Amino acid sequence: MRIARTYLVFSTLLLAVSLPYLFAQSAAQITGVVLDPAGGFVPDASVRLFSLEKAREARTDSRGQFAFVDLPPGSFELQVTHAGFKTVSDGSIRVRDTPVPQISIVLQLESMDCGYPQVTASYPERSGNVNLVGTVKDFAAGFVKNATLTLALLESGQGQTAKTNENGEFLFSNLPPGKYSLKVTQEDYSERSGIDFWITRENLTRLTPIYTFRKNQHTLILCQ
After folding, report:
1. What is the pLDDT of residues 157-168, one digit of tens each?
2. Domain match, 147 and 208 both
3. Residue 192 pLDDT class (50, 70, 90 cuts)
4. Secondary structure letter of residue 133 according to DSSP
5. Are residues 75 and 93 in contact, defined by beta-carbon separation less than 8 angstroms?
6. Spatial distance between the Cα atoms of 79 and 34, rounded to a whole number of angstroms
7. Torsion-angle region of residue 146: left (phi > 0), alpha (psi -120 to 50) or beta?
8. Residue 205: which CATH number?
9. Edge-to-edge strand order for the sheet containing 103-106?
10. What was the pLDDT predicted at 19?
11. What gap in Å lies between CA 112 and CA 46, rounded to an integer?
């Protein structure tokens, strides 16, 4: 009887010591490697992981590796960007109780075609009700006022509109989380469309300037 009690006490203590370790080992995570077309590692690539709750960001190390740990179960989109390469997105990632296999992402070289500067987004922490901010600029000079911003939630097509002020600024508030597409129109300017980004519950989405041409303007955009 005494031996049984001793064994029970020992087992309880062992379990108490082991549980934190076991939970740490089983915490959901996503790991991967980013490669160039020749199979070489791509260091210092920006890797973002989006969910409806928040945007997470990591950088690849010298061996092109990245990791996101302590993830809740759910659906995620992974987005990888690096100067000189095309952006790659994967919206099929599911985190469950079973480990997610390591992801291998191969970037393709960006073409040298000239055109509008690419619109990108940053995702600082949000306070207040504003979800999205940005500016619309004339490619030659100045800001574009009274431009109409048409925002569409890709999953449902639900949309909202806003106008730029005299400084070309716009904002949207109280947007439901999800992936969106933005279109910019103004009667004197060419239309800009196909600008995609995420809105999350915890982050402010801040876009880089959206440039556009006057309709009667024939300006050559030089490659940088």
Report:
1. 989 999 999 999
2. yes
3. very high
4. E
5. yes
6. 11
7. left
8. 2.60.40.10
9. 65-68, 30-35, 103-106
10. 36
11. 21
**Lookup: tokens for 137:** 């600029």
Q: Rounded distance, CA 148 to CA 150, Å? A: 6
| Beta bridge partner(s), residue 44 | none
Position 38 in a domain: yes
Task: For residue 135, give the amino acid letter.
Answer: T
Rounded-to-integer distance, Cα 47 and Cα 65, Å:
10
Look over the chain and give the mean of its residue pLDDT values, rounded to a whole number. Answer: 86
In a domain, 184, yes or no: yes
CA-wise closest residue to 105 among 83, 121, 89: 89
Query: Side chain identity at 26, as an amino acid letter?
Result: S
| Amino acid at position 97, single letter | D
Are 125 and 102 part of one and the same domain? no
Helices (H), the chain: 2-26
Q: How confident is the model at residue 140 (pLDDT cuts 50, 70, 90)?
A: confident
pLDDT digits 0-9 by tens, 69-107: 999 999 999 999 999 999 999 999 999 877 788 999 999
Distance in angstroms (rounded) separating the CA atoms of residues 149 and 217: 21
Per-residue model confidence (pLDDT) at position 7: 38
Measured in residues, the chain has a length of 224
Q: How many domains does the chain have?
A: 2
The whole model's pTM is what?
A: 0.82
